[in-house]
Amino acid sequence: MQRKHLIALIAILIIAAMALAACGGQATEAPKPTEAPKAQPTEAPKAEPTEAPKEGGVKPADEIVVYNWSDYVHPDMYKMFTERTGIKISEDNFSSNEDLLAKLQGGATGYSVIVPSDYTVAIMIEEGMLEELNHDNIPNLKNLDPEFTKLYYDPGNKYCVPYLWGTTGIGYNTELLENPPQSWEGVFKAKESDPWYGRMTLLDDVREVFSAALIYLGYDNNTKDEAQLQEAKQLLIDAKKGVAGYDTDNYEDLVGTGENLLAHGWNGDFLQAADEYGNIDYYIPEEGGTIWIDNMCIPKGVTPEEKLAAEMYINFVLDPEVGKMLGEYNYYATPNKESLAIADPDYKSNPLVFPPPEIREKLRFIKPLGEFESVYQRMWDEVKSAQ
Ligand code: SPD
Questions:
Q1: Has residue 368 been placed in a domain?
Q2: CB 3.0-4.6 Å disulfide test: which of 90, 113, 178, 284 passes with 289?
Q3: What is the pLDDT of residues 67-90, one digit of tens each?
Q4: Exposure string (b/e) for 167-205, b if CB count within 10 Å is 16 or more?
Q5: Mean pLDDT of the 327-355 span
Q6: Are 252 and 374 contained in the same domain?
Q7: Sequence-separated (6 or more) residues with CB below 8 Å from residue 382
């Protein structure tokens, strides 16, 4: 190209660039004041429950891990969640609230949803271990029974959403044991002549086991009285010879197979196993037992993408159909009023899932005890290590 042609070409390019800059690409795009559409709140697109909410450009993570109790989902739930959202999901399990707490306090990462019980949520909020939920991403929150929006440990569900609730009592093998003990005395003071002596387990769970012992002794299951706790500890140590072990994950199967005759455990675990083995029943001993609410929460430290995917999972669980299948399969009580409205009548009327008032009044929540929690832990270590 000749020099004069090159100069002409450059001049044309400069003029074109200046013309574009003068328009700024805006003159035709910027709406005139009179034309500007007003944002109408009612016109804002609503995020479908299963659709990724458009949140500041954040896209949900491709994959999340739920840290949950064992046997605590419907077998189709994770597949359904992936089909609806494209997000892969898997789970890891813990055996007690204390294990969950210790693991997270120890720096474990990689979990986007965790499922602690009531008193543990209180501890985690106090210790700043939980993310605040973005309710805009959880429109199905409206399905929660109002009772579950006013919980002492998290009023307004700022950090957590109730998952399922249940009770702790005794399950037994109905084929091998005709008359299980109606009092905790049969467990804590079992005689060698009792058929269940050496063939029963207690939960491997400090607060649950101490609650049962304290309730039997007639004390507050959240006592901070060291003398009462010492008495409970001695009761538990003396009971050890009749106890086959402490177990939180397989106790119901050991009852179903007949290896053990009875166990201290959670209502839904026994009722699920009853479906499998056909020989298990469950009851609350005459002195009472515990009641609890497990919750879906997001631990601090997740990425914005994981948090969004976790909120989508929480929203999915709150879907009426999903809540129904979860509760009915696990035989735990759903906190979702819309799930309950469409649930099977057998589930809704099952007194082992939804305890009637005369049982309900004998049930006690485990409460957070602050620093005193360590006294329970020390006594529990002494029980476990006693010969
Ligand atoms: N298999 C699921 C059991 C869930 C039990 N969570 C309740 C803990 C109450 N301390």
A1: yes
A2: 284
A3: 999 999 999 999 999 999 999 999
A4: bbbbbbbeeebeebbeebebbbebeeebbbbebbbbbbb
A5: 98
A6: yes
A7: 233, 237
d(CA 134, CA 241): 50
Other CB atoms closer than 10 Å to residue 273's CB: what's the count?
Answer: 26
Residue 255 near residue 262, CB atoms below 8 Å? yes
Ligand 1 contacts CB of residue 266 (under 6 A): yes
Please, what's the b/e burial string for 296-312 (b: 16 or more CB within 10 A of its CB; e: otherwise)? bbbbebbeebbbbbbbb
210 lines ligand 1 (CB under 6 A): no
Angstrom distance (rounded) from CA 130 to CA 63: 20
Q: What sign does the CA torsion over 104, 253, 273, 285 have?
A: negative
Q: Taking residues 87-96, what's their average pLDDT?
A: 97
Q: What is the mean pLDDT of residues 222-237?
A: 98
In this predicted structure, the answer to whether residue 197 has a pLDDT above a threshold of 90 is yes
pLDDT of residue 282 exceeding 50, the answer is yes
Mean pLDDT computed over every residue of the chain: 89
Task: For residue 292, give the ligand 1 atom closest to its CA.
Answer: 9
Question: In this structure, is residue 317 part of a structural domain?
Answer: yes
Give the number of the atom of ligand 1 that is nearest the alpha carbon of residue 205: 10
Residues 160 and 308 both lie in one domain: yes
Q: Which domain holds residue 249?
A: 168-290+355-385
* pLDDT score of 189: 98
Average pLDDT for residues 182-196, to the nearest whole number? 98
69 within ligand 1 shell (Cβ under 6 A): yes
Q: What is the CATH number of the domain that holds 240?
A: 3.40.190.10
Ligand 1 neighbour 149 (Cβ under 6 A)? no
The pLDDT of residue 53:
63
Distance between CA 375 and CA 250 in Å, rounded? 28
* Pocket-testing residue among 294, 363, 380, ligand 1, by greatest number of atoms within 8 A of Cβ: 294
Distance separating alpha carbons of residues 302 and 61, to the nearest angstrom:
10
Q: What is the DSSP string of 200-232?
A: EEE-S-HHHHHHHHHHHHTS-TT---HHHHHHH
pLDDT for position 34: 27
Give the residue, by CA position, lying nearest to ligand 1 atom 4: 69
